[in-house]
Amino acid sequence: MRSVAAKILVLISVLTTLALGLPNDPPALQPYPGTGMFLMLSDIHFDPYADPAIMDQLGAKPLPVCQAPASQSFSSFGSDTNYPLLKSTLDQVAATAVQNHIHYDYVIVTGDFLAHDFDTRYRHCVGSEKEAYRKFASDTVIFVDAMISKALPGVPVFAALGNNDSDRGDYQEPSKIFLQSVGLDWSRAWGNNPAARREMALASFERAGNYALPHPTVPNDDLVILNSNLWAARNSKACSDADPDPGGQFQWLEEVLDRVRHAGGTATLIMHVLPGIDAMRSSAGEPQSLWAEGCTQKLIAELSDFRGVVREIYAGHIHRDDFRIFPDREGKPLCAIHIVPAVSPVYINNPAVEIGWYEKSNGELRDYAPLYLDLSNPKPAWTMEYVFTQAYGRPRPNLAALEELSREIREGNPHSGVGKQYASYYGAGVAWFLTPDNWLNYTCAQTEISISTFAQCRRPAAGP
After folding, report:
1. Which region among 28-37, 157-166, 245-254, 316-325 has the lowest average model confidence (pLDDT)?
2. CATH number assigned to the domain covering 29-458
3. 284/441 Cα distance (integer angstroms)
């Protein structure tokens, strides 16, 4: 009898442990109770010049200097995304959904559809006719968007413009013709929306490359897609007396958030270039900001005024798996910035995408899992790298958890514990970026938005 009772107690203990573990340990990629799944892509940087068939499909014939047989291999480290890599990426996310019996409710793309030096490559490989190039640039964005829609038919896609996504060059404001063409194409993948909201979003995109639409499944929540290239530090006049509100975007954002607040709703911001410190460029010397300082301060002020309305921010641009803590006027944590890693391996990172869990009640990010392709392997294969809650032991990747995690990472090192995990995840399995010598440079960038506070943070404590 005692033996039977003991076995029952053991069984109850095991079942209790499993039950307690369920919220943080979903089987495979299954949704948690009350959550849905979505897909995050960033920095695709598609390079069509390496494939004559793609060039022909886009209506451009490469000059003899660029004519070569299309490669069947994936892009290598230091190169942007070729067709085999892009197709493999999209095939993988589609196959992952089938294998795990899940459905992506929507996709967000945090910008940079076009390869680096896209305009220079065109002049070198095709010619210098401006109108032909303008059409080629927009058609390439549309080509990539069509591949996403083909891989995930019927799934709404919400994309932001990256600094390379222009027919006028890197960080340059796209022409109205480019915005009209790309906007019309993107609007076809926005899902079911009232005609008035769709028309309003399309008109806004054609003006300045931004738009806002209702979340496809979360009631009373808006996805607000910004053209943060307008606020980038490369645009030296941005938010200065010469150009106090580039593209009228701050006024537009205030109007959008005011409408959301009056409706008792919330909003999620999606952008490409994030505010804060450019950790990679700052590691070589003086701190450098990703945004014009005036624009950073304007956004801090605006989001402080709409505290509780903006739930979180998604961004890309740095090609790394990371996060930021965005402050309010007093410098206190206000909301988290989730940074999506890149598909392109151009900066010596493995190609990666992320699958996210979100709360269907309010849209909040519940958990996420990156998939990456290990290019150092002779036979590269896609692998799920980690699940945030399991890897970092936090209940969810919200602001409070990321505050704690940032402190633990900063106090650690890249060779052991949570610091070692972060260092490996940072480059999607390429771990040599972060060293003891540059550790504070990269970890201070997680929480310090301004150049002054960042410089103070990364300065080692003085010895006795």
Report:
1. 28-37
2. 3.60.21.10
3. 10
